[in-house]
Amino acid sequence: MVFESQRFWMGLSFVRALLVLPQVLWAQEVQGPEPDPFSSGPDPFAEGEERAVIPVGQGDRKTATLFLRVEVFEVPVKGAMELLDQELSGEAFRKTLLKMVAEKKAEIASLHATRFEAGSSATMDGIVEDIYPTEYEPPETLPEGSPLLRPEEQLSPAERVRKVALTFASPTAFDTKNLGTTLEAEAKVANAEQGMWDLVFNLTEVSHLKDCSWVEGTVTMPIFKVNSVMGRSRVKDGAWNLWSCQAPAGEDGSPDLSGLRVVLANLKQLKR
Question: pTM, whole model, 2 decimals?
Answer without folding.
Answer: 0.69
